[in-house]
Amino acid sequence: MDSVRLVQITDLHILADDNASLSGVNPHQSLSRVIDDIKSLSPAPGLVIASGDLADDGSTEAYRRLRRLLLELPCAVYVMAGNHDETEVMHEELPGENIVFQRRVDCENWKLLLVDSKLPGSSFGFISDEEFDWLDQQLSEEDGRPVLLAMHHTPLRLCASPSCQVKNADAFLSKIKNFNRVKGLIAGHTHNQVDQTHGDLRIMTTPSTMVQVTHNQIEAIKSNEEFWHFHEADTSRHGYRIVDLNADGSFESEVRWVPGI
Fold first, then answer.
1. Which domain range does residue 121 map to?
2. Domain of 192: which CATH number?
3. What would the pLDDT profile of 66-92 be if each residue is shown by its tens digit?
């Protein structure tokens, strides 16, 4: 096989009531429209990574509604927890059939590693000592394959608000840059599109399937209650990312947009 196509969806924010809205958007409807677009892709994706904030309130009913939507996808869906998610409830309600909890995915000539950046009770991200140890073990394997990392929080500082950042981002980036096999990193959390190259590492942040956010680069908020004083919402479009992993260790990536209702 020349390449493997994966799709990343992120920041779905599914609610227990599929008729309810957030920021003027019905997240159930917006995700359904994104899934319809994914199903139209040619070539079709071989897998989907759902990289966190899958449910807005972490409720059992929200995950059950989400599961019904994800089952429509014609490939494996690897799910990760974001700061809004309740990991234990996710484990109870989502797995089975095409929906998988798995930290490492061996994908043709590539290795995909799903990095846990969730710190319970916090909006910001944090990479634990245990996660650093796991990364060391995975990245030290001498199998020669290129690596793509996926996580919920982006290590890029795209916003002045602490809640939008990974608290120990510098240590994390220093760690992964020691391994030249790490070719790319995809993340979510910030509800916007960013694509930057840092040395040999390409770091991409993927839009939300629900609402996009413009971040204030000057003012830092003190609490989540003040969030919308320093951020602006765009409900006109919903997004996801395509990544094509090539057999020669290169990859291409683009964001696809679905118009809002």
1. 3-259
2. 3.60.21.10
3. 999 999 999 999 999 999 999 999 999
